[in-house]
Amino acid sequence: MSNAAPGLQPLTSEGLMEVLIRFSVIVALVIACDRIFTPFWGIMVWALILAVSLYPLHQRLARRMGNSQGRAATAIVLAGLLLIGVPTAMLGSSFAGEIYGVQQAFVNNQLVVPAPSASIADWPVIGEKLYSSWSLAADDLPEFVRQLQPQLGNAAEKLLLVASSTLGAIALFIGALIIAGIVMAHGESGSRVMLSLFSRLAGERIGSALCHLSAATIRSVAVGVIGVAFIQALLLGVGFALAGVPAAGLLAIVALVLGIAQLPLLLVFVPVIIYMWTGGEGSTFSNAFFTVYIVLAGFADSVMKPVLLGRGLEVPMPVVLLGALGGMVSAGIAGLFVGAVGLSIGYQVFVQWVAHMDDTRTGNGGDVVPEAQEPASSG
């Protein structure tokens, strides 16, 4: 009498060899596909994040445009390019012009450094050293440059690396936005594919809930990131304008772009603070007040992000926050979203497993499906 289950055949050596060959071919194919697609993982992950985050806005625009998915996606992409590309081009052109002017003035020995104020020497810790160096630069600029040649070379190299990484991040964001527009234009078919994938992995009922939870978590994190970036840019712009800083509106837009790209706002407000103390016309009290205000506004994201992350989700906010922070530490900016989604799904799967075990003990049975609630701001 055979103990084999119905429908199962005994595994022979030939059958085992065939299974191993098929498995090896599949593994080799997966590895080859991963290596081919590796250069595009970063931009595709960002494109999917942007597409999921902007899809509610895309649908509202599409309804107002006669249900035209393509025109709505094009409008969003063009608006994003204008918001990011124009300020970036203006800032780059202005910065290049200023650097060229300073370089020509230095070559022609026409660069004049104003004498420092005597009050600078009274500043705590750095006052005397700063006053001495500044006085030397005002009296004998070539000698000052010669003494600082090693430090200037290292600073220029670091500044070049920061500038190249910043431009690379902005270029990546623009490319991802264009791809996200294509994804949103075919959003309905893409949604069906993702729903089928989750249903295939976790079952129809649970897979559907986890699919909606993933989208809701991405949108919640996006609201936390973009919302905080907008609030910070607004606070900094108001501070710049009240402090009499030139081009305060343009600097606020640059702060918004850097905040969305998760780049440090120190790149914006530190030069502004230096300008206020060296070339501004404000009093000492005014400069001190606006310095404190600008620094607080520049670091306000450390307080606002924990408040906004996880709103509208059934997953507790600490779970979303820990996933976002852990993902960002391990995988960069995109990990902010991937980590939040992964830990949220893991949390819901764990909760479902615990609830299923409780129902099994009590005899209730049935599946416990996590409810994923859309954030209120996603529409």
Count of distinct strands:
0
- How many distinct helices? 14
Q: Rg to the nearest angstrom? A: 28 Å
Helix content: over 70%
Structural class by sheet pairing and helices? mainly alpha
Largest sheet: none
Shape type: elongated
Task: Give the gist of this structure.
The chain is mostly helical. It is built from 14 helices and no strands. The relative contact order is 0.09.
What does this structure look like?
By secondary structure, the chain is mainly alpha-helical. It folds into 2 domains: 42-185, no CATH class; 203-379, no CATH class. The chain has helices at residues 13-37, 41-64, 69-107, 127-139, 141-147, 149-185, 187-202, 204-242, 248-260, 266-278, 284-298, 301-308, 317-331, 335-362. Helix 3 (69-107) runs antiparallel to helix 6 (149-185) and helix 8 runs antiparallel to helix 12.
Outline the secondary-structure elements:
Layout (H helix, E strand, L loop, with lengths): L12 H25 L3 H24 L4 H39 L19 H13 L1 H7 L1 H37 L1 H16 L1 H39 L5 H13 L5 H13 L5 H15 L2 H8 L8 H15 L3 H28 L17
Helix pairs in contact: 2-3, 2-6, 2-8, 3-6, 3-9, 4-5, 7-8, 8-9, 8-11, 8-12, 8-14, 10-11, 13-14
Label this structure with key terms.
single chain, 379 residues, mainly alpha, 2 domains, elongated
